[in-house]
Amino acid sequence: MQQQYRQCPGCKTNYVRDDSLNITFGVVRYGVSSQECQNAVNELLGKEVMEFVYPPVHRLIVDAYGVQHPPHFEYQKQLGIEKRFLDASVQSIVVHLFALYLAFEKKIPLLEISQHMSKFILYVDTHNMQWPALTPPDNVGKVMIADLMKAQNAQEYDQLAWQWAESAWNAWSEHHKLIRQLYEKCQ
């Protein structure tokens, strides 16, 4: 029997179709990733914990994966995704880009980025700002989950995580100015 493939609507990676997966949490419920892609990131995170003892680059992993799975409103509406999850997918992109901005442009230590993200989210919410719906790039980056699965040791994993995050950050270059402006507003 010939294998069938399913393309992830977010990162556009083709995965062997697995209809036995029943993943309903995380970005799958936003309609921005396939179950196969969510399964791949779950495997990556399992490898990360078991082999590399939850390294600081986990911050980059979460953010790179997040921005590689942007909203696609037409597709999400076809799936019947609830409005609150549509809104969450819009917020998610901005927040994860903000984190990558902190890592690459502001050189904030990875273990401190979550604090800055919380402050940013609080600022936006308390000032009743609307989260901007950013137009995703055609290509969300050159480094993908499969690339990180090849890491043989913690040093390789760290290096690949930085490459993945940088690739994802650079893919969204059209929106760097806006992220920079949002950062400056909340300071």
Would you list the SSEs in sequence order as H and E? Answer: EEHHHHHHHH
Total helices: the number is: 8
Largest sheet: 2 strands, antiparallel
What's the rounded overall pLDDT mean?
A: 92
What is the gyration radius calculated from CA atoms?
A: 16 Å
Name the structural class.
mainly alpha
- Characterize the overall form: globular
Describe the strand arrangement of the main beta sheet, using strand numbers: 1-2
**Helix amount, in percent?**
55-70%
Which range does the strand content fall in?
under 5%
* β-strand number: 2
What is the element layout, followed by pairings?
Blueprint: E1 5-7, E2 14-16, H1 35-52, H2 58-67, H3 73-79, H4 83-104, H5 113-126, H6 145-149, H7 154-171, H8 176-185
Antiparallel strand pairs: 1-2
Helix pairs in contact: 2-4, 2-7, 4-5, 4-8
Concise summary:
The protein has 187 residues and is mostly helical. It contains 8 helices and 2 strands; from the N terminus they run ββαααααααα.
Verbal overview:
By secondary structure, the chain is mostly helical. It is 56% helix and 3% strand. The protein has a two-stranded antiparallel ribbon. Helix 2 (58-67) crosses helix 4, helix 2 (58-67) packs parallel to helix 7 and helix 4 packs across helix 8 (176-185).
Question: Which descriptors would you attach to this protein?
Answer:
8 helices; 187 residues; mainly alpha; 2 strands
